[in-house]
Structure formats: C-alpha cells, structure tokens
C-alpha cells in the first residue's frame, strides 16, 4: 500500500505538479471535520458583552486570554511558548505626540532672505515617532528627494544608487513607481511592481522602514490622494495616541521622525529648492533616477506622552510526530483583539467584534481540535497563534515576527483567519494576492476537492495583502496565506456577494453592531476552514517547503533566510 502511494505520488510529480506532495495523499474528505456549531459556540462567548469587546490591556483581554488558554489546555495541546506557558508577552506603548511645526531653511537667495518656511502641524504636516522616548528632534537635517524610495532587487530598481543618506531627511512619493507598459500606452507594466496591483514597495509602512535601514533622520511622504488611496484627512486621523510595541532597543533603529506632508507644501518646498515637483516626479518613475539633494534643511521637535500596556499573544502547539521534523512549524494565526468599549452608537458602547475577529479566533480553536482528531499528528509541528493588537496596526503579529518563538527559517507557512464568512456556502473562495506563493496551489487543490474555485481579490490596487497579520510573516520571508469569503453564494443571485460585503462594511464593520445575529449561517465558514486545515496539514506533511512565486517581493528575503540555515 505504501509503495502504491509513493508510486502514485511519483507519477504526480512526473506530470508536472508544481509542489512535492508525496508525503501525504489523504483526501480532504477523510480529514477530521470542522464543526460549525462548535465555532458558533466559541464566537458567542468571545463576542458576548461579558468580554467587553476584547481590547488589549483591559479586563476583556484577561477574560479572552484565559478562555483561549483553557480551551487549548482542554485539547491537550502543549504550551506554545518554549518557556512553558501558553502566552507570549507583548509590551505595547501608546505614544501621544506634541510636535513643533516643521521648519525649512535654505533655498534660492531670494526665498532664503524671506526667512524659513513653516509647515503647520496637522494642516501641512502630520508626523510622529516610533522611538520610545520623551523627545525626538531633527535639527537642520539636509533634505534629499529619493523618488519612490524603493530598493527592489527583483525589478532591478534602486532609488538610492549608493548615495549615503544617513542623518538626512528623506522626501518620498507614495505607492509603487508607475512604470508605463512599453507595449500599451496609458497602461502600467504588469511585469514591474505588479502593474495596477500595489506591491509592498508602495505601502507607506515600507517607506519608513527603508528610510530607517538607510539611517535617515526623518522620512516625509508626499501625500497624493490618488496614489495613497485616501485623502489627507485620513492621515490627519493619526495625530492622537498611536500604539507601537517595544523592542529591546526601544525602536531607536527607526527614523527619529516619520510623517506625511501635503502635496501643496511639497510643491512649495521643491520650488524653494529651485526644482519642479512634477518634473522630478516623472524622473522618479524611471530606473535612471538618482537622489536629488534639495539644498534645504529641516528642523522639527516632537515631545511624547508615553503609556505602557502589557498585552499577550496566546500560543499553543501540537508537536509533530516525526522526531526529525518536529522543530519545523506551520503557523495558524487569528487576532483575538477588537476595539473594546468606546463611543456609543445607537446606545451600544461595546464593540463586540463578533465577525472581526471572534470568528477567526473560534475557528482557530476548532481547527486545533480537528488536528487533535487526526490518527497521527502531522510530521511537523503546528503552532496555533492568536495575536493581540491587530486593530492597532498588526502589532501582536509584528512582535511575533520580530521575536519569534521558533526559527523563521524553519517556519514553513502562516495561514491567517480574519473576519470569516457568516452568510452560508460559496462556490468560490477569495485569496488575497492570489499567486503569491505555492500555498495558493495547495489551496487550489483543496478547493477542487470541495468542488470550488479560487478567485483573486477584486481591488489589488488597495494592497489588502499588506493589511492583516499574515503580512508580518510575509515581510520576514515566511510564505503566508490569507483568504477572504467567496463572492458566489450557493443558491443566491450573482449580486448577493457584493450586497453582503457592502452591508457588512456599511452597517457593522468596526461598529458595536458587529454582533452575532440569528441569521448567521456558518456552513460556508466550516468549508473555508476545512480547506485551510487541509492546506496546513499537507504543508506540515510535504517533502519540501512551500516557496514564494518567482518575482514576488518577499522571495529574496526567504532565499537568504533558508541559505543561512
Ligand atoms: Zn480583523
């Protein structure tokens, strides 16, 4: 029998299957089933008013963490933290900035004699620091325009060209460099920075990270509504307390100041430097672009009020059955946190977060139960990681990625669950960033066994791949899978999927009304989770690690990581 299975696998390989799946050919139907009633029962508890909306650092966190730890213990899972506990402490700090204006000096003689240029806080500039310290400042730091600020080896793109920008204040454009398609005027080159889709190089978070890597004193992004995807008013929402986690180095490796300036002020600033903003912007969309020193200096001081919040990731582990492979892990993630108690809407102050993300958290528990029902544990170990502070900027997962409990080079994949389907079965499943890695091939195989198909997300230009916890694994090289509910509901008209999505976004998303309602139908959720279970199980059994697709922006990091093993 064993020989026959191996032979069948060998045939699969020779006919060009993209992944080695020789180690396990258990059909999806033969795997332990996901029970929607068990998921609903967990959701009802986690999203009950007694859990107070599960905000980090509140009694709601204590109840949630205790519930999860208890559930994992009951299943007989091991502590996920090698220190023998089921938690990973996540030290968070809330930073409330009190900034000075941004002052620009220098420039053409006529303008310099008119005195410094002052950008007003909130109206012209929004800036903050992630350094955990009472005060940061940049003092007469030279301004350098670095185009889109991108270094992307897979596109042979480098906006720095070896120029030393340490201690300088970098001015950057938002989104990917818009490289035209030589074959189709007016369109973007799909082979460079994903065409219409946004790559991570386009996200504002990347811009600050690459600036820090180059030891810049400050990074200022020029806000443009189109490429950013939202108006400056959204940036102005970041003027209050922001959470960050505390690294051992207190985030001193970040640029002292991170922020945005308005397009109008950027144009004025370039004019003062004797430059034309639009002309330099056009140059920045080419590989030949080099950093442009603006001959101006920037000064700004930000005083901070700090508030410590100690939060926790919850983590349990199913030990692999193969002694030679049990130090290798497949990770499932789902954030447990939500917004807690806040501004009342229609008289309700508790942000229950039933769908976002009691569903994913409940599914994680049910997934863990299903794994314990396997006749033999998978060869590799499975980590069930419920992370904190997703709603504050993916902080719990970012912390895990920075302080992993097991080596990232031996972490095969992250499979994330966030805001699952509560409206019944679908014929399809959406994969955010479909095609990013071989995990999508596993997902496609499992979907096929369910008689379903995979679909890409409808709005790739919005960069949803970079907006949930799986992304923090991708960023450090670990292939990561994040799905969204299907759009083609069984027995419903074609328009139903969009209606469901819009109704949720408008009426319930991030509101106290995100509660369990009598019309919930978790049959579709159970199928989706069953599919993810099959993916995780098979990756944990496979002969090889899943790989990023050629050209993916995280492939180089992974290759270096695996080589360094
Ligand atoms: Zn969520």
Supply database-style keywords:
565 residues, alpha/beta, 17-stranded mixed sheet, two-stranded antiparallel sheet, 16 helices, disordered N terminus, binds zinc ion
What does this structure look like?
The chain is of the alpha/beta class and 565 residues long. Helix content is 29%, strand content 24%. It contains 16 helices and 21 strands. The protein has helices at 2-14, 36-46, 59-74, 109-112, 204-213, 225-228, 232-236, 263-272, 277-284, 354-372, 395-402, 439-449, 470-475, 496-507, 523-541, 555-563, and strands at residues 78-79, 87-99, 102-106, 117-119, 125-128, 135-145, 151-152, 157-158, 169-173, 218-223, 242-245, 257-262, 292-318, 329-335, 340-345, 348-351, 381-387, 411-416, 428-431, 453-456, 480-484. The chain has a 17-stranded mixed sheet that branches. The chain has a two-stranded antiparallel ribbon with strand order 7-8. A hairpin with a 2-residue loop joins β15 and β16. α10 packs across α15 (523-541). The longest helix has 19 residues, at 354-372. The radius of gyration is 25 Å and the shape is globular. It starts with a helix and ends with a helix. Bound molecules: zinc ion. Residues 335, 356-357, 390, 418-419 line the site of zinc ion (ZN).
